[in-house]
Design brief:
Radius of gyration: 21 Å
Number of strands: 0
Largest sheet: none
Oligomer: single chain
Helix content: over 70%
Strand content: under 5%
Structural class: mainly alpha
Shape: globular
Number of helices: 15
């Protein structure tokens, strides 16, 4: 829990500190630096000689992920046509979730064989193909356009058309004008964007507080026999067994299903209605965690909660980049992302402090937070499904 909390804290800190950098200097350059930090931090943490150096290196990893994730979402939206924007966001969120699922599966088969150091090294392997892909991909044409770089924007568009087997007339041009407010914190809190910034920040804060807390809560919940249904007595916070890892895989798989369902509903019904229904169902599902029937009931309930968390998370990530123009899209996304991860810090810390006292205390915190998220969603009415992306 301590490692998770400080990594999430660095994620939040660097997400807000560097959120304006992609708006001013481009998406690719920031992603390249972030990937380099992830690789260095991962390898350094695998061979760290003590706990303090390990925490320091995980701080670096958390910081680099904080820089990259918001940038990747903006990149995906800006390279997608209007009807496919939700798919672009969902693919990014799905990749992160599948990455977590693969880690659980690999841990089940490899952790007890290779040990935690080499397991961390293995987890850093995906950075290699990510570097290769980043070299091949063009810069966001919308970033070029907002920066007044018309020639570079047209080159990026023609490259994308070629990859997608489309042709663009030679005489077509883009109207690009350099914006003065690239990466402006003042602009994301202006009258035009204030409600979107605050509303999405509150909703994301609540969902991530529960979501990140749940990441810590689930292994403890499965391994600590909190419902008293297991025939084998185990100490509180004991080492995860193979059965616990299987339960984590099942619950995380439920999260993948929630993500895919969010995409389907967002495409058909828009963003607001699915969010309102799912946040209400989240409140009901968390209430059910107070009732211990048997192991199967606990597994089903936790899987449903995981499903709804990822459903809500995906809808929010679809809404965020659609709500802001290109010149402040990364700044606003990073700002909202940072508030979410601050919720993650509080969520993981709360589990760390409260679980030994009572698992119901943790569940109660999750429930209150989800009620706040539901009420904020009921007050939020902006539908972005059919909005045209703006550059300024």
């Amino acid at each position: 829990a301590v490692v998770s909390t400080q990594s999430t804290g660095s994620y939040a800190l660097f997400s807000i500190m560097f959120s304006k950098v992609p708006d001013r200097y481009g998406r690719k350059s920031v992603l390249g630096c972030g990937l380099l930090l992830v690789t260095v931090g991962t390898l350094a943490s695998a061979f760290s000689p003590g706990k303090w150096t390990f925490l320091a290196t995980r701080f670096v990893v958390g910081a680099s992920v904080g820089i990259n994730f918001s940038t990747v979402v903006c990149f995906a939206v800006e390279c997608s046509k209007s009807s496919l924007r939700a798919y672009g966001c969902t693919i990014v969120v799905l990749a992160a979730l599948i990455g977590n699922l693969i880690v659980y599966i690999l841990a089940y088969f490899l952790l007890h064989i290779v040990g935690w150091r080499y397991f961390i090294v293995i987890s850093g392997v995906p950075a290699v193909p990510a570097f290769i892909l980043l070299v091949v991909l063009p810069e966001s044409p919308r970033y070029f356009c907002a920066s007044g770089k018309q020639e570079e924007a047209m080159k990026a568009v023609r490259f994308m058309a070629k990859v997608n087997c489309r042709e663009i007339p030679d005489d077509i041009m883009m109207a690009c004008f350099e914006e003065e407010n690239l990466g402006s914190y003042t602009m994301i809190l202006s009258k035009e964007h204030r409600w979107s910034t605050i509303g999405l920040s509150v909703m994301y804060f609540c969902n991530i507080l529960v979501g990140f807390g749940y990441i810590i809560f689930l292994p403890l919940f499965f391994s600590s026999n909190v419902c008293g249904t297991s025939s084998v007595e185990r100490e509180l916070c004991s080492t995860l067994e193979q059965e616990d890892l299987i339960n984590l895989v099942i619950a995380t798989a439920g999260g993948v299903l929630g993500l895919l369902c969010a995409l389907a509903f967002a495409q058909c019904l828009g963003r607001v209605i699915p969010m309102r229904v799912s946040t209400f169902l989240m409140v009901l599902s968390l209430i059910s965690l107070f009732f211990c029937v048997n192991d199967t009931f606990s597994l089903v309930t936790t899987t449903i909660v995981k499903f709804l968390m990822n459903f809500i998370n995906t809808c929010i990530w679809i809404m965020i980049p659609e709500s802001f123009p290109t010149n402040i899209r990364s700044t606003a996304t990073g700002f909202i992302n940072a508030w979410g991860k601050l919720g993650g810090v509080l969520g993981t810390t709360a589990v760390y402090l409260l679980f030994d006292i009572s698992s119901n205390a943790v569940t109660g915190l999750f429930l209150v937070t989800s009620v706040i998220g539901f009420l904020s969603m009921m007050a939020y009415s902006r539908e972005t499904k059919d909005e045209v992306l703006k550059d300024a």
